[in-house]
């Protein structure tokens, strides 16, 4: 395996392409729904407002708990008092919604004009009596999913400190608390809680919690484990600022990843996993109808949401051939366990280790796609229609961000998304239609 590991290290490349992803302020879309007593105030220009209107406009009927503070020319040229304007908006939010926390989302413009959000927030918080968390989830990040990373890192600093009183809440058979971090729908979080509980491990809290007032206790005796690969900044904050102990595990995506995630946590708590292998086998058996479609098919990841390594590893286990894994940004330390599982998966499936391209150049990727002619390309929305016009099947990578893909049960959802364009073509051929071919 050591020889194979050396080969694996040589599979990394870094190009100089642009970051073709959404703006990270889009994290508001799922975070305001997860943290039920929160309100998000995005501070930026009209461009940011147009983006939020287009990206999140379909949610307007659900009375979303977010708003846009638009910066005008007078704001940018420092002719207006930023503090007074933000105070007026926050007082209005307090009167209309009465949230437990207001999250200020700083955009690119606040960075450029050096708006001191961190300096104003504590003063205003003391004045109006509502916690204000500042997160600079702006377009200077690598991928749109890192907006959540920025918010959770800021929120980690607001979690209460671990103490002897807090430890009394944990069952006597588990003296060490475990906190999981990453925003998941409540149903999925409950599934993962239940999977760990079956092994005798009780989750003491989640970051973020469903309510801001229920943030987990953190401290040097607390173990933390992530559920998404784009949360490296949060992991660093939890380790360095809050002195927590990070469990480096693969991510619970797919039956193989979920089993490895649970096994790693069990090993830290000195627990021998019970029935995990049988449970994973049973899940794979239930996926056979989808596996028959994807086996032997090839897939190419152009890179968009930093979920690419985990998804590629799962699809290789399903029998697919992965030509290339493009990824906007990767923290090799935070994803070390996932990379190790990818290597192990390729070894067991007897397939070459795919090339991993960080910050890919889309121009060169298109050339490689034309040469390789993969059965499926998973990419950002901007590239799907041009590729489809050239006879290449595509899937929006953003759909994997919003879909429920974590845990044993939700592996079917991943394959539902992956096989949808393949099944569409099968149905078209059955009707006598043929797909477009490039001239």
Descriptive tags:
439 residues; alpha/beta; Rossmann fold; four-stranded parallel β-sheet; 20 helices; 14 strands; globular; disordered N terminus; ATP binding; plastid; oxidoreductase; chloroplast; iron
Write the layout of secondary structure elements.
Blueprint (H helix, E strand, L loop, with lengths): L1 H8 L2 E3 L13 H7 L3 E7 L1 H11 L9 E5 L2 H4 L5 H16 L3 E6 L1 H5 L4 H12 L3 E4 L10 H11 L7 H4 L10 E4 L4 H13 L6 E3 L15 E4 L5 H9 L4 E2 L7 H15 L7 H11 L1 H7 L3 E4 L6 H10 L3 E7 L8 H14 L5 E4 L3 H11 L3 E4 L1 H9 L4 E3 L1 H5 L8 H20 L9
Parallel strand pairs: 1-12, 2-3, 2-4, 4-5, 6-7, 6-8, 8-9, 10-11, 10-13, 11-12, 13-14
Helix pairs in contact: 8-11, 12-13, 12-15, 14-20, 15-16
How would you describe what is shown here?
- The chain is α/β, with parallel strands linked by helices.
- It folds into three domains: 24-142, Nitrogenase molybdenum iron protein domain (Rossmann fold); 178-269, Nitrogenase molybdenum iron protein domain (Rossmann fold, 3-Layer(aba) Sandwich), CATH 3.40.50; 287-431, Nitrogenase molybdenum iron protein domain (Rossmann fold, 3-Layer(aba) Sandwich).
- It has 20 helices and 14 strands.
- The strands form three sheets. The protein has a six-stranded parallel β-sheet, with helices on both faces. It has a four-stranded parallel β-sheet with strand order 3-2-4-5, with helices on both faces. A four-stranded parallel β-sheet has the order 7-6-8-9.
- The longest helix has 20 residues, at 411-430.
- The protein starts with a helix and ends in a 9-residue tail after the last helix.
């Amino acid at each position: 395996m050591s020889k194979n590991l050396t080969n694996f290290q040589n599979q990394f490349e870094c190009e100089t392409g642009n970051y073709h992803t959404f703006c990270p302020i889009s994290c508001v879309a799922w975070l305001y729904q997860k943290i039920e007593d929160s309100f998000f105030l995005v501070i930026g220009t009209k461009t940011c407002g147009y983006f939020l209107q287009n990206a999140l406009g379909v949610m307007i009927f659900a009375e979303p708990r977010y708003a846009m503070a638009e910066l005008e020319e007078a704001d940018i040229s420092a002719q207006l008092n930023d503090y007074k304007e933000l105070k007026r908006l926050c007082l209005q939010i307090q009167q209309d919604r009465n949230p437990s926390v207001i999250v200020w989302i700083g955009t690119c413009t606040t960075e450029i004009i050096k708006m001191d959000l961190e300096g104003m927030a504590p003063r205003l918080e003391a004045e109006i009596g509502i916690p204000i968390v500042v997160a600079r989830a702006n377009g200077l990040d690598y991928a749109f999913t890192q907006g959540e990373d920025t918010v959770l890192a800021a929120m980690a600093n607001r979690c209460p400190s671990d103490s002897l009183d807090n430890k009394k809440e944990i069952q006597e058979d588990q003296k060490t608390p475990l906190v999981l971090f990453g925003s998941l729908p409540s149903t999925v979080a409950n599934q993962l809680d239940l999977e760990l509980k079956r092994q005798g491990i009780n989750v003491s809290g989640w970051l973020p919690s469903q309510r801001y007032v229920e943030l987990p206790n953190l401290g040097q005796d607390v173990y933390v484990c992530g559920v998404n690969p784009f949360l490296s900044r949060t992991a660093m904050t939890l380790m360095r600022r809050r002195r927590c102990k990070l469990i480096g595990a693969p991510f619970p995506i797919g039956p193989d990843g979920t089993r490895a995630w649970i096994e790693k946590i069990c090993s830290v708590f000195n627990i021998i996993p019970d029935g995990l292998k049988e449970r994973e086998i049973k899940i794979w058996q239930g996926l056979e109808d989808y596996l028959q479609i994807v086996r032997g098919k090839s897939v190419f990841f152009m890179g968009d949401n930093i979920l690419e390594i985990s998804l590629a590893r799962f699809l290789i286990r399903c029998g697919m051939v992965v030509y290339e894994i493009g990824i906007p940004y990767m923290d090799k330390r935070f994803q070390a366990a996932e990379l190790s599982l990818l290597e192990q998966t390729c070894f067991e499936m007897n397939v070459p280790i795919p090339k991993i391209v960080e910050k890919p150049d889309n121009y060169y990727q298109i050339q490689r796609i034309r040469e390789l002619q993969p059965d499926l390309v998973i990419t950002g929305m901007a590239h799907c229609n041009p590729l489809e016009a050239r006879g290449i099947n595509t899937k929006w990578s953003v759909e994997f961000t919003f879909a429920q893909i974590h845990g044993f049960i939700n592996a079917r959802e991943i394959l539902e998304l992956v096989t949808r364009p393949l099944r569409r073509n099968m149905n078209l051929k059955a009707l006598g239609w043929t797909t477009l071919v490039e001239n």
